[in-house]
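SAMPLE LOG
Freezer: B-3
Tube label: C17
Construct: single chain, 137 aa
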Amino acid sequence: MLVFMSCDVEQHYKYAEPLYDYFSEVHNQDFRDFKGEQKIVILTLSGCSPCVKDVMNSLINTYTDDTMLLAAGTSTELVVSNMLSQLQQIYPMMLDPENLLIKYRANISGPTLVYFSKSLVEATELKVNNMSMIFEK
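STRUCTURE (predicted):
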């Protein structure tokens, strides 16, 4: 995934509109006219299991208080279910067990940080080796 940043001209993540629609229609969260900032980590539970587990473990061990989580899909792995339960005790979380995110074609296939700030949307694929740098922004 790409991160779009701007100096004077606001740029959008290419799939910003589907993300806006998804959060509005599925989770009743409207970020189109959002005046603040919101970080949402999207955990695609049916994706690459080692990737998801690594990111989940990192989130459990490194709390970031300004972050919300979205669990999209389900996993049959007991360890993933247990980690998800732990994360629900730590972070505000939205659930999408049917993985409706796929229908919106937002191009999110692995653990991803989505950052909403005013009319700017950034999306960055998360890996354990880039998480601390991304969350420090």
